[in-house]
Amino acid sequence: MASVSMSFRVRLHDTDAAGLLFFARQLYFCHDVYEELLRRIGMPMEELIAKADFFVPIVHAEAQFLRAVDVGQLLNISVNVAALGISSYTLGYAIYDEHGEQVGTGKTVHVTVSRDERKKIRLPAELRSALANLRDTD
Amino acid sequence: MASVSMSFRVRLHDTDAAGLLFFARQLYFCHDVYEELLRRIGMPMEELIAKADFFVPIVHAEAQFLRAVDVGQLLNISVNVAALGISSYTLGYAIYDEHGEQVGTGKTVHVTVSRDERKKIRLPAELRSALANLRDTD
Amino acid sequence: MASVSMSFRVRLHDTDAAGLLFFARQLYFCHDVYEELLRRIGMPMEELIAKADFFVPIVHAEAQFLRAVDVGQLLNISVNVAALGISSYTLGYAIYDEHGEQVGTGKTVHVTVSRDERKKIRLPAELRSALANLRDTD
Amino acid sequence: MASVSMSFRVRLHDTDAAGLLFFARQLYFCHDVYEELLRRIGMPMEELIAKADFFVPIVHAEAQFLRAVDVGQLLNISVNVAALGISSYTLGYAIYDEHGEQVGTGKTVHVTVSRDERKKIRLPAELRSALANLRDTD
């Protein structure tokens, strides 16, 4: 499977009165790309929420802000599988502007827990396999 | 019961690159006040979501923007019961700045539907009574 | 010019714990379409903010919510010029889901004011002409 | 100066369809506390934006999510000065729920740049002094 990426036009409401993209908004964009990744591997968010017997809450997130991003800019964000553990996975995000300059990075760490007891569980096989496949083709 | 009002400091992320409060953000603030109203009448949102046998989705909303609102301003928003129907209620919001100038208005129309079938139902008696009480003391 | 429309995948952060699209978020989507309209007529938001000698603040907004919208749904929003006044214009938005069902509407009223004094001014000729053209081809 | 902290009621729009606080929203709350810190040290955001000859963009941010946070919960967030460099400072945030359980952390790294050229500059003396004072009284 080819890696997953999305384009975003920075909208007025993504920015703030300092004139630029509000920093934490970048992680919203990253999560949108993660949702697209889930859709591609056949586990869209709406089905995870409605039916899966596990959740994958984010336990850690971080982002770097390398360049100022203005309203109207067109960003491209790609996601890769940075680590695949027994009961967790780490996604990395690279954010570029329309000139090919990197404007930032993102990282989210996800842990699989059971729906019922919210106890940590091993990554479900299907999810692990899909993420491994994605990682190998980066 | 005295009417319900709340103060809001306009935060950087509430504004946009045009330098002012993003228009639709005003309705987020209004909804915060509505949530406070629900809390006051003993039906906090978390209990409605978890336990109630009805929902009260918003079917219409509107807002007026009378003055520009900048980051750092302190707003006060009060809510009143503008109409109380058989299966709906309308809330009105008045938004003032720290100088007592009105900067905007809001309105939300809520309809009660059953949790199971999402069919329109009569306002539950307890909710109706609480809203009537609030209206009479405005 | 053909009318302007955009597709939106409803993202997790667009929804709330009641399980559906947060009502006022719909007006954020509508504004995104408005920004696309401005881009199409050669007046992108970033240039208006940086250079124009006028602003077009929103003085009124409203929305109807006709059907529940879930995370993962694909919405299509089109905008039309509902009214064109001396110093204002009104935009209407129609929101449909992927099955062609209308899920909501939006409306925003914009007034042109001078950048310097923030006094109401006539619609700049170029903007009026572009909006009139868009209206006539709806 | 005593350390700066704020309380937040988690609102419906802070949560998502998975039923909990949307992860990156936590960093919005942290930034609100940072804005309150700026206000306390006499440099409110609105003055920084309007008048200061420097900006302090965030170059790195991170957060940990230790417990699920539901709509309606009352959070308390305190900020401390974790590091004070030549031209940067790092703020740490601790987030607790109403039962005194820690639900998360936050961190933001800020760099001072000149308004005109956006070149890295030494922390302005007044800002450095205020932050040092805040750090020493933690």
Describe it for me?
The structure is a homotetramer of 138-residue chains. The first copy, chain A, is an alpha+beta fold and 138 residues long. Chain A has 3 helices and 7 strands; from the N terminus they run E-H-H-E-E-E-E-E-E-H. In chain A, the strands form 2 sheets. In chain A, strands 1-4-5-6-3 form a 5-stranded antiparallel sheet. In chain A, a hairpin with a 3-residue loop joins strand 4 (74-84) and strand 5 (88-96). The first copy, chain A, is elongated, with a radius of gyration of 16 Å. The model of chain A has no long low-confidence stretch (mean pLDDT 95). Chain A binds chain D through residues 17-18, 20, 23-25, 27-28, 31, 45-46, 49, 55, 57-66, 68, 108, 118, and chain D through 17-18, 20, 23-25, 27-28, 31, 45-46, 49, 55, 57-66, 68, 108, 118. Strand 3 (58-65) of chain A pairs antiparallel with strand 3 (58-65) of chain D, so a sheet runs across the interface.
Q: Which key phrases capture this entry?
A:
138 residues; alpha+beta; homotetramer; two-stranded antiparallel ribbon; 25% helix; elongated
